[in-house]
Amino acid sequence: MNETRHRVLDALSDGPVSGPELAEELDISRSAVWKHVEALREAGFDIASDDAGYSLAAVPEFGGEAVEYGLDAPFEVEYHDSIPSTNARARDLAAAGAEDVVVLADEQTGGRGRLDREWSSPSGGVWLSILFRPDVPMAQAPAFTLAASVAAARAAREVGVDAGIKWPNDVLVESDGDERKLVGILTEMEGEADRASWIIVGIGVNANVDPEDLPAEANPTSLSAELGDPVDRRVFTQRLLELFEELRRDPETAVAEWREYATTLGKRVRVETPDGVVEGEAVAVEFPGGLVVDTGDERVTVSAGDCDHLRPL
Ligand code: BT5
Prior knowledge:
Elements: H1 3-13, H2 19-26, H3 30-42, E1 46-50, E2 53-58, H4 64-68, E3 76-83, H5 86-95, E4 101-108, E5 126-132, H6 142-158, E6 163-166, E7 170-175, E8 178-192, E9 195-205, H7 223-227, H8 233-248, H9 251-261, E10 268-273, E11 276-286, E12 290-294, E13 299-302, E14 306-310
Parallel strand pairs: 3-4
Antiparallel strand pairs: 1-2, 4-5, 5-9, 6-7, 7-8, 8-9, 10-11, 10-14, 11-12, 12-13
Helix pairs in contact: 1-3, 2-3, 6-8, 6-9
């Protein structure tokens, strides 16, 4: 949303305000005011008008403008009802030089997980990718994945779903040893070793979707299934972005907070890494995100891989 439209919206939310008053306040023509009001109505804002002027009656349920409205984080939000993959779109935007942009979709038709796996993304989810350009070496990028999982777990807890994190990037709801997958995160990046050029953190939250519509082998769950009611996706998305914004400024704290939510620490794990399988007890997570596994013989730090929680011996 452009700057002037933001200001029109802010003025309307403090309204009623008349067209001429608005034009004067924002130093634009009356017809420009009219165009902004119409564009906002088209985006789903309910703008009442009576003798006293215009006022904001209701905010749209979901969408780019809806999420940007009142968002306490410096992201522009590009919304799609349906798109193949928000990460793929964010890569195109990165190639075009963009930054601090969020691509958000109601549905993805070609959602991707790690290692080219599929990410099922029916309508009703929160499928988004955050594109940013932090001044950090590439090796620190895993800290942003952990930051995203902390933000997602916290946002889920704020709506009443007791989420935990399985190293490195799965946000799960656990009960009686049963782990149900709520969120998946896919981080992509490009740059030189000493400085990332861009990082894209893709976050897929099963918000208001029926777990029956998701691949059963992943034992999926959703916010609505856990709560018995749909969540307000606009507010949830805003909190997710605001929490991520705080954590990305302070990756060391993000890693510390990750430990608080971790379900992996203290468990026996089996991690499939690009260099082979590591099995043992997960004893620590080190900045920027490596998992320390005590195999009995030695302590090994793994920085990437698929992690399974094993039953205690
Ligand atoms: C992930 O991969 O968990 C990362 C998923 C990232 C998705 C987001 S959505 C927005 C952005 N745009 C994209 O295209 N991607 C990102 P991984 O750890 O590889 O897990 C993939 C596995 O999870 C699949 O093989 C399935 O078994 C399972 N799965 C697929 N869809 C699921 C869902 N909606 N909920 C739970 N599990 C799912």
